[in-house]
């Protein structure tokens, strides 16, 4: 569907003099529209010098996969000289089989940034012109329409073929959002760019590696970190409202575990010391919360480390290393997929515990308030329906807990006889992030309702945090269409 062309986003310039300057933090800032990359003269010169060495080696190298031969099961077919001339661009045509839904603009910017970073490492032997075009695509807002749905391929060839086709002007780009597209040639013309022409090996370089999964992993780690921060506030408030015993928030219980100690300290600082507990021991969903949040913290850190390895690593196949063309499996993405799955499961665990604590808050024996946090039990339902929404979300999330790395499938006439399905792992993680945020919104609404009913919510610092998150919600505890409040909270938490 055609639409208005994407617009350039004003952003500070990130001048790149070395590959390391485009790290995960910079990728995140580019995705958010805060930075736009450009190549420094010295880096551009080194890229072209490296490409000249690669092209000279190509002349006497014999068969080079995807450059002088076909790809996949067709790798045994030598290309004629005339076929080689158009090989880089031909690789994008038949492989562009994806369709909507497309990645969002922020995600597309992140993919362009990670693709650029992998090229700046020098292993692909691509030109400074190609790298510059990737940077220009970000700066000018010419963002390729990249399929979100996973494909049965060993790497990301199908999604990256769409990226390459957009550069060539034969594909499509996003037209302002992730729902409409426009022909790339028209968008390039509006941006003052000509369709890019690819030289030898640049085509196979464009469709190798895991820049899409890497980009989505960087974004997922940042979003999960935000969910973790919000969850700590919510759990602390639930401890305070329930008058739960603070025993499990004693940092002495976190001996040998610095992450757990940090989470415990933050929870206790927000919830406050508390008075006489309402029960000798709070429900397990309260007591286990620090461990579950600490585990989420650790999985986020591990995912960030995996994304760093992907940004630094050799992902091209064949890579050009020390004058040799070396085949690799850098396209497989197993490391990223496994860590994305770990974060997904940790998010689901946190969401399930959150829905359980929400249920406990509806019990007067736990909250000390009216049944179901109702202002008038009987005539008014209170928040029981809100808990049911949270239960529905967590039940749906369980389907995302199946690891994508399990269950290899053969494609390409058996040449690709296993897939990591790393993009599927990224998609599952995104769904888990959205679900965990929705459950937090339900919990926040219950906390707000409890406060409207007179419950005390911990320290002044905690009350200030809650006031920001729940600003604009009605101050009355009477029944209303709770879904409107949940959506307002969900948008605020996601923003």
Summarize this structure as a short list of keywords or feature phrases.
two-stranded antiparallel sheet, Fumarase C, Chain B, domain 1, 53% helix, 495 residues, mainly alpha, 2 domains, Fumarase C, Chain A, domain 2, 18 helices
Q: In short, what is this structure?
A:
By secondary structure, the protein is mainly alpha-helical. The strands form three sheets. It has a two-stranded parallel ribbon with strand order 1-2. Strands 3-4 form a two-stranded antiparallel sheet. The relative contact order is 0.11.
Measured between the Cα atoms of the first and last residue, the distance is 28 Å
The CATH topology of the largest domain turns out to be Fumarase C, Chain A, domain 2
Average residue-wise pLDDT: 92
Percentage of β-strand residues? under 5%
Enumerate the strands of the largest sheet in spatial order, edge to edge or round the barrel.
1-2
Q: Which sheet architecture does the biggest sheet show? A: 2 strands, parallel
Radius of gyration: 26 Å
Order of helices and strands: EHEHHHHHEEHHHHHHEEHHHHHH
Structure description:
- Helix 1 (24-31) links the parallel strand 1 and strand 2.
- The longest helix has 32 residues, at 211-242.
- The chain folds into 2 domains: 12-208, Fumarase C, Chain B, domain 1 (Orthogonal Bundle); 215-494, Fumarase C, Chain A, domain 2, CATH 1.20.200.
- Helix content is 53%, strand content 4%.
- It is built from 18 helices and 6 strands.
- Helix 10 packs across helix 12 (289-312), helix 13 packs antiparallel against helix 15 (384-397) and helix 16 packs across helix 18 (482-494).
- It has 495 residues and is mainly alpha-helical.
């Amino acid at each position: 569907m055609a639409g208005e062309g994407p617009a350039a986003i004003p952003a500070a310039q990130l001048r790149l003099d070395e590959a390391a300057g485009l790290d995960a933090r910079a990728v995140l800032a580019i995705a958010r529209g805060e930075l736009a990359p450009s190549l420094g003269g010295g880096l551009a010169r080194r890229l072209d010098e490296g490409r000249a060495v690669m092209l000279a080696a190509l002349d006497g190298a014999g068969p080079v996969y995807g450059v002088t031969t076909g790809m996949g099961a067709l790798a045994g077919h030598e290309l004629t000289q005339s076929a080689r001339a158009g090989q880089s661009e031909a690789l994008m045509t038949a492989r562009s089989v994806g369709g909507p839904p497309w990645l969002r603009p922020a995600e597309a910017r992140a993919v362009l940034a990670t693709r650029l970073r992998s090229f700046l490492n020098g292993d692909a032997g691509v030109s400074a012109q190609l790298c510059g075009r990737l940077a220009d695509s970000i700066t000018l807002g010419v963002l390729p329409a990249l399929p979100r749905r996973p494909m049965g391929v060993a790497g990301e060839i199908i999604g990256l073929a769409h990226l390459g086709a957009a550069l060539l002007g034969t594909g499509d780009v996003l037209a302002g959002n992730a729902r409409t597209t426009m022909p790339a040639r028209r968008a390039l013309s509006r941006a003052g760019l000509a369709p890019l022409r690819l030289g030898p090996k640049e085509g196979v370089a464009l469709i190798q590696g895991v820049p899409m999964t890497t980009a989505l992993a960087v974004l997922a780690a940042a979003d999960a970190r935000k969910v973790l921060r919000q969850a700590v506030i919510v759990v602390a408030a639930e401890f305070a409202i329930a008058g739960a015993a603070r025993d499990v928030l004693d940092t002495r219980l976190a001996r040998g575990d610095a992450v757990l100690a940090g989470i415990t300290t933050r929870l206790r600082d927000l919830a406050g010391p508390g008075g006489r507990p309402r029960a000798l021991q709070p429900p397990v969903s309260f007591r286990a919360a620090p461990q579950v949040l600490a585990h989420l913290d650790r999985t986020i850190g591990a995912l960030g480390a995996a994304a760093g390895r992907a940004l630094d690593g050799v992902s091209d196949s064949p890579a050009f290393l020390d004058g040799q063309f070396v085949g690799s499996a850098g396209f497989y993405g197993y490391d990223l997929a496994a860590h994305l799955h770990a974060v997904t499961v940790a998010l689901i665990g946190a969401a399930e515990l959150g829905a359980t604590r929400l249920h406990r808050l509806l019990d007067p024996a736990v909250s000390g308030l009216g049944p179901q946090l109702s202002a008038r039990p009987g005539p008014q339902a209170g928040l029981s329906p809100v808990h049911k929404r949270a239960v529905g979300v967590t039940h749906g999330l369980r389907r995302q807990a199946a690891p994508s790395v399990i269950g290899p499938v053969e494609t390409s006439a058996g040449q690709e006889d296993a897939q990591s399905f790393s993009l599927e792992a990224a998609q599952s993680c995104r769904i888990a992030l959205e679900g965990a945020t929705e459950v937090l919104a339900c919990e926040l609404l219950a906390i707000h309702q409890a406060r409207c009913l007179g419950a005390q919510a911990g320290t002044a610092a905690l009350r200030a945090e809650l006031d920001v998150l729940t600003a604009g919600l009605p101050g009355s505890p009477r029944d209303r269409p709770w879904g409107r409040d949940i959506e307002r909270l969900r948008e605020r938490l996601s923003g």
